[in-house]
Amino acid sequence: MLRAVYPGSFDPVTYGHLDIIRRSARIADELVVGVLNNNAKMPLFSVEERVKMLKEVTDEFSNVKVVPFEGLLIDFAKQVEADFVVRGLRAITDFEYELQMSQTNHKLEPEVETMFLTTSIEYSYLSSTTVKEVAAFGGDISQFVPEAVAAALEQKMNKRRV
């Protein structure tokens, strides 16, 4: 069985993330979406909220499992017995960073490979940061995120405005 890990902060999950999940789920027998709990960052959504949203928007995929993690990605990949890590690339700047990370991970654990998927052209500009910025100014984010995520983001932004 071929198992892959697709890690990220997913704060919030976007259609770009879902594109990579959909495509990765066709390649791997099992795809573990690892939701990073990074104490050094101040995410808008808690790790529990992000896991819940991801489970909701990936429930159509029978081979996708959503799991929170913290610490090194390579340790998480070993813990879930992943054969490879999936990373999405939007631009050359992503590649430079992701190449360095994949080489470091390969040095730490040579048995775990990294596979890069280029983002589909319709999502190449999209990032969680952009989505949050548009939402913060009351913009329409329906073309960037699933309906459930848009509702959660709108609710979060309304609480911040009060």
Automatic annotation (TrEMBL):
GO terms for cellular component: cytoplasm. The record marks H17 as: Transition state stabilizer. GO terms for biological process: coenzyme A biosynthetic process. Signal peptide: none annotated. It is found in: Cytoplasm. Pathway: Cofactor biosynthesis; coenzyme A biosynthesis; CoA from (R)-pantothenate: step 4/5. Keywords: ATP-binding, Coenzyme A biosynthesis, Cytoplasm, Magnesium, Nucleotide-binding, Nucleotidyltransferase, Transferase. Substrate binds at S9, K41, L73, R87. Its main location: cytoplasm. Its EC number is 2.7.7.3. It catalyses: (R)-4'-phosphopantetheine + ATP + H(+) = 3'-dephospho-CoA + diphosphate. Its cofactor is Mg(2+). Residues 5-133 form the Cytidyltransferase-like domain. Homohexamer. Reversibly transfers an adenylyl group from ATP to 4'-phosphopantetheine, yielding dephospho-CoA (dPCoA) and pyrophosphate. Belongs to the bacterial CoaD family. This is Phosphopantetheine adenylyltransferase. It comes from Mediterraneibacter butyricigenes.
